[in-house]
Amino acid sequence: xxxxxxxxxxxxxxxxxxxxxxxxxxxxxxxxxxxxxxxxxxxxxxxxxxxxxxxxxxxxxxxxxxxxxxxxxxxxxxxxxxxxxxxxxxxxxxxxxxxxxxxxxxxxxxxxxxxxxxxxxxxxxxxxxxxxxxxxxxxxxxxxxxxxxxxxxxxxxxxxxxxxxxxxxxxxxxxxxxxxxxxxxxxxxxxxxxxxxxxxxxxxxxxxxxxxxxxxxxxxxxxxxxxxxxxxxxxxxxxxxxxxxxxxxxxxxxxxxxxxxxxxxxxxxxxxxxxxxxxxxxxxxxxxxxxxxxxxxxxxxxxxxxxxxxxxxxxxx
Length: 317
Hints:
By secondary structure, this protein is α/β, with parallel strands linked by helices. The chain folds into two domains: 3-169 and 213-239, NAD(P)-binding Rossmann-like Domain (Rossmann fold); 170-211 and 242-280 and 297-316, Alpha-Beta Complex (UDP-galactose 4-epimerase, domain 1). Helices cover 45% and strands 15% of the residues. The strands form four sheets. A six-stranded parallel sheet has the order 3-2-1-4-5-7, sandwiched between helices. The protein has a three-stranded parallel sheet with strand order 6-8-12. It is globular.
């Protein structure tokens, strides 16, 4: 197996790369990103290639040179950034995906691409959101995610491309800071709790959103790609989730470890509007039944691990 990860310097990619290299061997997993500086860090444990996913010939050369058989296409513009620059979001999220799908078709490669809770909208049931339900997002990010789901379905049905994907909730990492998403607060709050004992949140205290700790997010991607294709009914947009909480609840969990921690609120109307259109919780029974999905971390376990890891890191820096 030869694997390519686009957007490898991003929040998910930077950790997925190492997980894949540990699993398949360093030289069998190629990291690709438009950020050359970040890519140099990834090249320490395996091959790195500069690659703009919207440029067909550039990505084709990478796939040819390395004999790529599996693609994890993670390059994307996230929700808050996408709303400020919708043209860029469409170009990267849709035109970039189209390029990678065409190359997967040409070279008979399987392709994983993540969708998101952003693919849902205000008319979607917000509690225990079904696997198959109405999707009418009101953000550019959401529009690109729904379009991407449909495009991947089309390439599977029309050309037989082995496309797969999940709808990720907000992802929380102790390694990489997020890059412009609506759920960013759930990462930032841990860093600020340890460094400054206070955090100013851009969402309302009772804004419930689906979340997942990064180790579970990585496991979901790898497990889905290793599943026998014959078992899959929903190929490109499996709901996956691990926990649902509000800023108020996560702050209370942090206070069990850091009693002096305080949270304040300064609402960002753009991100609050996006959050209010997203599910509070998702039904992931299809993923559980079709490929054995099951998360390990809940809010309590995640908070224990986040605080332990970050305290150790800050003390040694």
